[in-house]
Design brief:
The structure holds 2 protein chains of 2 kinds.
Chain A: H1 6-14, E1 32-38, H2 42-55, E2 60-63, E3 79-80, H3 87-101, H4 103-107, E4 118-122, H5 125-141, E5 146-148, H6 150-156, E6 171-175, E7 179-180, H7 183-197, E8 200-202, E9 207-213, E10 216-222, E11 225-234, H8 240-247, E12 253-263, E13 273-276, E14 281-285, E15 291-301, H9 309-322, E16 331-342, E17 348-351, E18 357-361, H10 371-384, H11 398-401, H12 407-411
Parallel strand pairs in A: 1-2, 1-11, 2-8, 4-13, 11-18
Antiparallel strand pairs in A: 3-7, 4-6, 5-6, 9-10, 10-11, 12-15, 12-16, 13-14, 14-15, 17-18
Chain B: E1 3-6, E2 11-14, E3 19-23, H1 35-42, E4 51-57, E5 65-71, E6 77-82, H2 90-99
The chains are: A alpha/beta, B alpha+beta.
Amino acid sequence: MRRYSAFAIAREAARYHTGWGRAWRNPTPKKSYDIVIIGAGGHGLATAYYLGKNHGLKNVAVVEKGWLGGGNTGRNTTIIRSNYLQDESAAIYEKARSLYESLSQDLNYNVMFSPRGVLMLAQTEHEIRGYKRTEHANRLQGVETRFIGPKEVKRLVPIIEISGPRYPVLGALWQPRGGTARHDAVAWGYARACSDMGIDIIQQCEVTAIRQKNGAVSGIETTKGEISCNKLGLVVAGNSGVLAEMAGFRLPIESVALQALVSEPIKPAINVVVMANTVHGYISQSDKGELVIGGGADGFNNYTQRGSFHHIEETVRALIETFPIISRLKMLRQWGGIVDMTGDRSPIIGRTPLENCFIDCGWGTGGFKAIPGSGWSMAATMARGEPDEFAAAFGMERFIEGRFIDESVAAGVAH
Amino acid sequence: MLSLHCPYCGVDVDETDLTPGGEAHLVRSGSGSDDADFEAYLFMRKNPRGVHFERWRHSFGCGKWFHAARATDTLEVFGTYSAQTKEPPQDVQERIRARRPDWKGFGKGDRI
């Protein structure tokens, strides 16, 4: 791999940018790999990357039915934070956030991580109590957050209306080290680094069956032929149920559509991420100037990557009450992604009923922020054959044991 | 916007007047059942990419629960029917078969 650097820009500029070359190879699949990961989104590519980097396992393939980073990795609102209530969640999300801090250097690829700070608005008395509790929990977990009053919110976000008639801003949970990153770049950076280590990323290769022998996985059948493997990782977010059915087990997961939208670009107006969970909308401004807006998920099973329009309406309605200045903005694009929601709104990482088949799924509406931590943990889990320190609490067996990591109650909404 | 026919009111209802209730025809496992059955009843879902039978409640209307047969990959609705049944009525199943010749039938072809 030719490293990207200031010197490389000068060198390529001198030859009219004709020498950059491809960022990753486009290989034909081999007959067999030690490990196959299904799903070349952020989580799948991160898993492959850390398998190679942390565990020296490089005879790995990542197969993807579409194009890499074309699912939820390219459809989210790019928010990165780790201010979770439950210890298990805070641990893995904080691991991810801290990996994001050095990811550009690590991958030699600018993922444009911007630790601009994340505000979660408290707009009811209950939310104040809830966030103060989270602040205390975060302090014990070593996650830096602070509950701040409305004046400080106004100072951080001058365009906010704090004395709104229905839901005044009463304070906020402030995580100064949270922020955003360029979502596509995260997938591309991992893909480039994987490809450089000799890991094959095979796009437009849909898995049609999972082969097994004596209760253990032996390979997959794809639209590009059969590939045998010793270990298989399912990292397919919204399509987890489809793959699990092929592998012969069920998941405590339902796939629903989650939508986002962006406005026309405007001059810099807001330099932090604001999440308003009571009215249910979140907003940040991209480097291009667009306001990136996310809202609520649909409540019914859906694989179409199209959501219901009334959610867009509700989200925008809520946000213009909090940010009256944006009420005349035109919205440029809206889109949907299929998210995999578990019963307790926490992810699943670990073994499955099929031997040597591992799963990393259930990140629901908040997977982007977790990509490096999820990949780190999934890679360790697959390499060892048993859950690592982060994954231990997130096994599927927690549903039969009633040992939930209940972020749905902690957050009050999907997160 | 999704629109479903309420079999009780006899009117077409917009999604905003309805509450989705997840997979229909689950076998209820109560006290005395083993852990695996109880887990399956509470959490494990078929979540298919294709024909799905599900519960809906006409919240801003009659308030009654009913069932819908719907495709999760196209959002096509095959029909709605009373919740007081253990399997979809024949006419709904016929309609699904007409639209999806490779559909294996209610509860058939389930590997799990």
